[in-house]
Amino acid sequence: MPSKTKNVNVKMDEKLVEFIDDFVEKKGYKNRSEFIRDAVRRRLDPPLNEETLNEFIEGIKQIEEGKKYTQEEVKERFGIE
Fold first, then answer.
1. pLDDT above 90 (res 52)
2. Are 72 and 80 in contact (CB under 8 A)?
């Protein structure tokens, strides 16, 4: 079942609209709406918490030290199917 959508009207400075149009063209968005939805989603996503960030840093250190992980180990570690 498709999700319901609503129109939201937003007034923007002309230069901002030009920037969005350029970004849409350069990054391959279908239209302004797709870009704006993506930007809002990205803004609403919580940033990495300190624990997750530290895990990434530790992982990078291990990779630099030559430690390698199989795809299955990574999936298990991060609960990915």
1. no
2. no
What pLDDT score does 60 carry?
Answer: 82
Sequence spans of domains, the chain: 14-44, 49-81
Calculate Rg over the CA atoms of the chain.
Answer: 20
- Start-to-end Cα distance in the chain: 24
Cβ-proximal residues to 77 (8 Å cutoff; 6+ apart), any chain: 69
pTM listed for this prediction: 0.53
DSSP string, 11-60: ---HHHHHHHHHHHHHHT-SSHHHHHHHHHHHHHSPPPPHHHHHHHHHHH
